[in-house]
Queue: 3 jobs
Job 1
Amino acid sequence: MNTSTARYQMVNQQIRTWDVTDEGILDLLARLPRDDFAPAAYRHLAYADCAVPLGHGELMMVPSVEGRLLQALALDAQDVVLEVGTGSGYLSACLAALASRVVTVDIHDDFVSAARGRFARHAIDNVAASVMDACRELPDGRFDAIAVTGSLATLDQRYIDALRPGGRLFIVTGEHPVMEAQLVVRGNDDDWRATSLFETSLRRLQNAPEPSGFSF
């Protein structure tokens, strides 16, 4: 696989055509070798328009969704970001390139260990990765942006509470096969507003609560 050509095609045929217009993000995705973050058995799928298996029934996001997520969060070089669901570490690396610091958590300790190794190989030193069940607890502190990489049945107020004033939350809610990606922006106090971005479908966060009578 010619990875340079594959990255070019991913950016221009998948991501750019799905309303990702931020040239800084497009340039980042064209530079960062996504195949270095994919499991060895699936590296040939790293630039395909599909969700790559990671193990434990988990998947890498489709590249176009990653691009929309990064664009929606509108990160600043001074931002501190929380990522829920480290996965392969690829999105963590993208966030780290755009922000000051990234705190990323995952329920699977082998994901966290593998991601730390990938960060080290790529000299990414502004990501702190740890094992945590985000459906039960969140890291201390408040954040300028939060990216939740698995879906929830409904919006979880804890993520809004973990935002600083003006903070942005990317989250996907609803029921398979049609879910809603949303951008939530917190105001100065307890007010916030949510904007629908697009329809998609992500696997549930492990241990995510389900409303009574809801099946998945």
Job 2
Amino acid sequence: MGDASKEVLTAIKDGHYAAKQIYCKDRMIAWSHRRRFETGLQLAARFRGQRILDYGCGDGTFLALLLASPDAPGSAVGAELDDVQVHDCRARLGALPGVAFELIANLDRPEHAGAYDGIVCMEVLEHVVNVDAIVDRLWRLLADRGTLLVSVPVETGVPLVIKQSARRIAGWRRLGDYDTTSRYTWRELAAGVVAGRGQHIRRPVYEGTAGPPYHDHKGFNWRALADRISRRFAIESIVASPIRWLGPSLATQVWFVAHKRPV
């Protein structure tokens, strides 16, 4: 991340999510998010010179860092749900060479079908209510020999207890949005710690003000998501973050590296 130009770093710092994540005042939270981005940049190095899509690009932080890296893609599209985020990304990052920002709804146009050598979907699918529909869309957008990179948080096992404790403390300190994080009952927390591949508790659904209904992190199970992704993609590997060698069971996030299954 240190190789990015000063102009790009300035634009990134003005991003809404960057302020809460990689530039969070809490050093542990910032470190964890930075490691997630660093892992993603390493995995996305395979897209050098290719055309990629950042699906659910947020404030464009990852895309900007990738475009400023030695392994920059040839061209890139960042997609988001609403005009506000798209316009913000265009205003701050639109001058970067080879980048465009679009509404997710526009991705259903014929010119986007199979158009991307690589797709990055970072910290999105844990919030999606109708996961299968989004997985199907990602399958349509990816080129036949392309690669899908998906990052999601680990909200089960020992990491769940650690993260809920950290969120509670961050909420008390008024850092990020942690003061609004859904709480667990003791029974729900126990179910999360021992969760397997199936959905272990009922997940709350919230109504979006500018988009579809969504989940927060409560009850998310990365193993269950892996099964949903596997309907359409062959998962090549699962990479843990922030420390790879700890493995997914002790990670705070995981990355899926996947390829399209034939029809």
Job 3
Amino acid sequence: MSLLWPAQVLLGVAILGAGYLAWFAITHGPLAGCGTGTGCHKVLQSRWAYWLSLPVSVPAVLIYAALLAGTVLARKPASPDDERGAWAVIITLSVIVAGAALWFVGLQVFVLRAFCPFCMAAHACGFTAALLCLKRIPHVPDPDTPMWSAGSGKRGVPRQGVFSLVLIGLAGVAVLAGGQVLFPRQRNLVAFLPAGSARATNQVAAPSSAPAPPLTPAAQSTNLPPSPNARLVAPRLLSLYNGQFQFNLSAVPMMGSPDAPHVIVYLFDYTCPHCRALHEILESAQRRLSNQLGIVSLPLPMSTNCNPLIPASFNTYSNACDYARLGLAVWLAKPEAQREFDAWLFAPEKLPPVAQAKAYAAQLVGADKLEAALGDPWLAQQLLTDCQLHLANWQATGRPAMPQLILGEAISLGPLNSVEHLLILLDRYLGMDTGVNKF
């Protein structure tokens, strides 16, 4: 059994790595070296980081721990039947661990083309431990040694039994892979909040594990109506939460015309990957619907550097405040240039550095105008208003997820799949005739 103690050490390291990732996934806390734009961030924000809406690191911890327990039991003096039982667990779980490691490494190499160091370290330790365990199987040459019946007094695992256990382990890997392929995690939630209702209805998603929203004096109100009830109360005047938020559509950044009969509100963070993916969907939908749809585009930095209404554990987006200020400053200095600036900023897969973004903004609006806009008190007030609106949505839905769309009495949280997905939401919650079929 000498080779089992190295496997136990490796499994201990794998448990620590997977446990750290599980803590990050459950608490939404910061992960060291995993900022926006890194391969780590891309992997952990992908659909492949979940199995049936459960972070894959959670079952990984349990499987690693069970395999470790099996190796401990196998090293203790026991009856032949108990020894075979321990090795049945070890063989099955070793195959699952090794197969899962190959599956997830393959996803990072061939599908995501990005790597999470914590994931790779846990997979490497788990895979090596599994091989060590499989190498140490106590085979017996006697074909009559029973695998599933007790009382023979013969020690060891027969080869036919090993074959059966390997098949069971491979079935476990197939369940893992099949669950991810056939039942991808639902990343979008729509909370329908009818005006006058006491709470959300038709909320499609599992309850959030995020902490309750902070209630601070900086919030506009902690007794907001439960529905955003976004509606035009006058030409170019959009009201939300029964007038507790009002936006003059001539005085905020927009995609489309401020005279559009249908208006939605978009809360986004320039550094949020899902927000970046949604931007092109919104642009495409607005071009398709033309003057029928206006989109109020409000930067919402998920950073405590300028957002006082989120807990410190949410401060995961590097330089989010800098990009938000630049976006608002470009609009303030030259409104017609803001859409071009956003298109340039969202176009590359990786966000350009702040200095480069500022240089491009100065090129669009002029360096002097940009500096004046960055120092305008309106900019700080607008950012705070955006933060307060995000807090109101958080209180209404119980979730802080980004990006967010306010569509009448509904709030969409998280990424959308396509332009057609957005058109369906517009048809369903705004009553627009977008030309798509409802699902």
